[in-house]
Design brief:
heterodimer; A: alpha/beta; ten-stranded mixed beta sheet; 7 helices; 21% helix; B: alpha/beta
């Protein structure tokens, strides 16, 4: 694999247009990845999902070279028609379209970055891989006191041409003071057996609001890793919703740094798995300042021989007095082969805090099924009704009414 | 050399029963030393081979490093793996020689004067040393057919039992410290309860004749045969000093059909001084196997001592309908560190486990609850309930919860809850209004916090443990 990485990297650099500074950084990132390789279960964070093994088993040999000079066609049919929205269209890891048609053009600043943060997290080699092979990084800056009028939908498309390839993609958002944005991240996969590695950075200024809804529902055999890093200043709010169901393997990782007082982070997630899927959500909320708040609710419905994993960590710095942290994960196992693993973790260094976590897993409540059947439902409908209710709990947490309605329709929970 | 031996021999008349114990194995860990230990204990060949196998395995094993409390590297070649119990010459002559702080604590716990001497290895007078209490104990046990002796004695007298069960729960292929113990263990307790016998009293190391100075690599083996019951106590509430810094004991429990074992620990080893210097490293492997149907193993621990406590008393629920329980109070103060919890491994059908863990950290200490609940595919209708609460006192300490939850069976359920908080001002205010001073108020609230676990301890122990909880937290308020 090492040789392949090196030749693909040289090919990638020679066909792209990077500055010498960028090439230097990319080389460093590649070296870091070469040193560590794909994460395996030996690393604590990958204990339940050995991505090295998963890639080897399901894909085998990967191509790391991806030609960003090709112009990809966009099929208009995939665009959401129910709501007016701004778009970013990404095909095979390349940004094909930016359209902020509903916004005041001087309030949003688009540019590409010459510099990127060298892997902030040393033991995560996938971020190094991303840094070394991702194309020019786009940065979206929302200016002071501006709230986007319409939501932004990021379409992440892969087409049939792609196979056995590693796609690395990176996007940056900067929200200045008092600004706000609503994002829906939709993946639309028409490809099979690729490893897709996404990295999103969000920087929230004072009083900024980020609402980020991620949906993966189309069935495909890709393997995905999606990392969102959110940094929050005073009084800012971030809301992340994850619906993960379609791909064979996904690990969604959300890392929130609450750096300013009264900042708060909400992360809600659903795993709806069948067949032989293996999905993981890992949340990392770092309370670094006084009076911060975080809340996580993760629910899984697991059928057939699927596997759902939740790892959640609440870290409270000794400075972060009066922290309020709450975390709950629940799972319903529908089949004997299904598996649920959880590691809800608290690491606390301040005494005046209120932190708790809970985790429960089991089968559907027989009494509830019996109750519904008594009232004339057949067993299948009764079960479906209970599962819908179980998952709706999470969807109802979405604070934007318009988007909530849209997502409910898309997921099929009503 | 010869003079020295004679000198050593002179010491025996003050109490030691066998002459071999005056020898000391040379420093270091090697095959020679293991052969030396085995030889001196007149062990059968199979046991020597067993120890050597463990040693072979140890050579390839690495010391684990994933734990939260880090400690300076231990030089295993610089330790004595076998040494005779300290002669009275080197021990303190009388109580006045001891740390006044220690004496103060004894007073608060209400420990009799003779007892205090015994705990510190001071030669006790003949009247007390006749161990009449212990002798009567032994008679009752023998009548019931219960075997309760040191493991060395058991190896000589009941080799079949030892051979059958030793290492059956903690195999020699286990982790580093467990394997180290297998290679060099010196002594410990052995208990066998015959079928359908309910042990009439709480067994305690405390009452075992020749129990003192079992050393740093202790090995305990408890077997409860079909339909039997035993409650075993380890340690005592009084603070204990020990010369050895590293303690790597192994405790194996085996419960056959319908048997029940209750194992209670009160650990109060020397925690080091106020600045975190010195103190014991308590790296113990404790594991129970519910081998038979309807068996039950229950661990209760009150951990207040040691500089570093690193242990996870576990239950392997192999028999159908077996039950595992874990009740724990861990208190850390000053610079103490603890990384403790349990593992509940459900293998049989209809197995149940319950975990109640209470952690209290004060001063500059650090406390971690780490636990595993693993329900395997075949363990249908199993349930687990876990509750771990942490209490923080002051903002220089840390409290962490790291549970691992694995559910591979759709008919089983796992519920886990954890909270971290401090003592509320309202509660304190309420108590103080009613005339308690701050320290008493905190003691009262903390005892309430721990009640669920304290209730699990045998009566006479519970009273002492309650006092101990208060004492351990002294100086942490205000």
């Amino acid at each position: 694999m090492e040789q392949k990485l090196k030749t693909d990297f040289d090919k990638f650099i020679s066909t792209s247009n990077f500055s010498s500074q960028e090439i230097k950084l990319k080389k460093e990132a590649l070296d870091n990845f070469l040193k560590n390789g794909f994460p395996s279960r030996k690393l604590e964070n990958w204990k339940f999902s050995d991505i090295n093994q998963i890639i080897q088993k399901n894909i085998g040999e990967l191509t790391f070279y991806n030609d960003y000079n090709i112009k990809n066609e966009i099929n208009d049919e995939i665009f959401i028609k129910e709501i007016e929205h701004n778009k970013i269209v990404i095909v095979n890891g390349k940004v094909e379209q930016f359209s902020f048609e509903y916004e005041e053009s001087d309030k949003i600043n688009l540019k590409t970055l010459d510099n990127f943060n060298q892997n902030p997290n040393d033991d995560n080699s996938l971020l190094s891989l991303n840094n070394s092979f991702s194309n020019k990084i786009h940065n979206i800056l929302v200016k002071k006191n501006y709230s986007l009028k319409k939501p932004l939908i990021i379409y992440q498309i892969t087409n049939e041409k792609l196979s056995n390839t590693n796609i690395n993609f990176q996007l940056n958002f900067e929200l200045e003071e008092n600004s706000s944005i609503k994002i829906i991240n939709l993946s639309d996969d028409n490809s099979e057996k690729n490893f897709i590695n996404n990295l999103f950075n969000f920087n929230l200024g004072k009083n900024a609001i980020l609402k980020n809804y991620k949906l993966d529902r189309k069935t495909n055999t890709n393997i995905k890793y999606d990392y969102s890093s959110i940094t929050q200043k005073e009084n800012s709010i971030s809301e992340t919703f994850i619906f993960s169901s379609g791909s064979d393997y996904i690990k969604n990782e959300v890392s929130c740094n609450l750096e300013g007082q009264y900042s708060s982070a909400f992360i809600n997630g659903i795993h709806s798995l069948s067949k032989n899927k293996h999905h993981e959500i890992r949340t990392n909320t770092n309370h670094l300042y006084e009076n911060t708040k975080s809340y996580q609710l993760i629910k899984s419905v697991i059928d057939d021989s699927s596997k759902s994993v939740y790892q959640g960590k609440i870290y409270v710095d000794s400075k972060a007095q009066k922290t309020d942290g709450y975390q709950l994960s629940k799972a319903v196992l529908l089949n004997e082969q299904a598996e649920f693993n959880a590691k809800p973790e608290l690491e606390i260094y301040a005494d005046d805090v209120k932190c708790s976590h809970g985790s429960a897993s089991g089968s559907l409540d027989e009494d509830s099924i019996f109750y519904l059947m008594c009232r004339g439902l057949d067993k299948k409908t009764a079960k479906e009704l209970l599962i819908t209710g179980f998952l709706l709990d999470v969807v109802e947490k979405i604070t934007d009414e318009e988007i909530k309605k849209l997502l409910k329709n898309m997921i099929g929970l009503n | 050399m010869r003079d020295k031996q004679i000198e050593d021999l002179k010491d025996y008349k003050y109490g030691f029963s066998t002459d071999i114990e005056s020898f000391k194995a040379p420093k270091g860990l090697n095959e020679e030393v293991i052969r030396f230990i085995s030889n001196i204990k007149k062990e059968p060949d199979w046991l020597l081979q067993w120890r050597l196998k463990a040693f072979e395995r140890l050579k390839v094993l690495k010391e684990p490093d994933w734990q939260k409390p880090k400690y300076p590297k231990i030089d295993y070649q610089d330790l004595y793996y076998y040494s005779a119990p300290k002669s009275f010459k080197e021990k303190p002559k009388n109580l006045e020689d001891l740390d006044p702080k220690l004496l103060e604590t004894y007073k608060k716990l209400g420990i009799p004067l003779q007892e205090q001497k015994r705990l510190n290895g001071i030669a006790v007078d003949a009247v007390f040393d006749s161990v009449s209490v212990a002798t009567t104990f032994k008679d009752t046990l023998t009548k019931k057919g219960i075997i309760f002796c040191s493991i060395s004695e058991a190896i000589q007298k009941h080799p079949d039992l030892v051979r059958k069960y030793l290492g059956s729960v903690i195999p020699i292929t286990d982790h580093f410290f467990a394997t180290l113990n297998s290679a060099v263990f010196t002594d410990g307790s052995f208990v066998y309860i015959p079928p359908n016998v309910k042990c009439p009293m709480e067994l305690s190391t405390y009452f075992r004749i020749n129990a003192s100075d079992t050393g740093q690599f202790e090995r305990t083996l408890i077997i409860a045969d079909k339909g039997s019951y035993v409650s075993y106590l380890e340690g005592c509430t009084a603070p204990m000093r020990d010369e050895n810094q590293l303690h790597a004991a192994n405790v194996e429990l085996i419960a056959l059909d319908d048997a029940e074992i209750k194992y209670s620990t009160v650990q109060n080893w020397y925690p080091g001084d106020k600045d975190g210097k010195g103190g014991i490293y308590n790296f113990v492997t404790k594991r129970g196997l519910c081998k038979g149907k309807n068996s039950k193993i229950s661990w209760t621990q009150v951990e207040t001592g040691s500089a570093i406590t690193w242990k996870y008393p576990s239950c392997i629920l192999k028999g159908d309908n077996s039950i595992g329980e874990f009740y724990s109070i861990a208190i850390t103060n000053n610079h103490q560190k603890a990384d403790t919890g349990t593992k509940m491994i459900h293998l049989g059908k209809n197995t149940k486990s319950k975990i109640i863990s209470k952690g209290i950290s004060a001063g500059k200490s650090d406390m971690t609850y780490r636990g595993l609940v693993d329900i395997s595919k075949n363990a249908s209708n199993s349930t687990n309930y876990t509750q771990c609460d942490s209490l923080l006192m002051g903002n220089n300490c840390g409290a962490h919860t790291v549970p691992y939850i694995k559910n591979k069976n759709s008919n089983s359920s796992i519920a886990h809850e954890a909270t971290t908080s401090k003592i509320s001002e309202d509660q304190l205010h309420y108590c103080q209004q009613r005339g308690l001073n701050q320290e008493e108020a905190v003691g009262l609230i903390v005892n309430g916090f721990c009640k669920e676990v304290l209730q699990q301890l045998p009566m006479e122990f519970a009273v002492e443990a309650q006092k101990l909880v208060g004492i351990s937290l002294e100086g942490s308020v205000g």
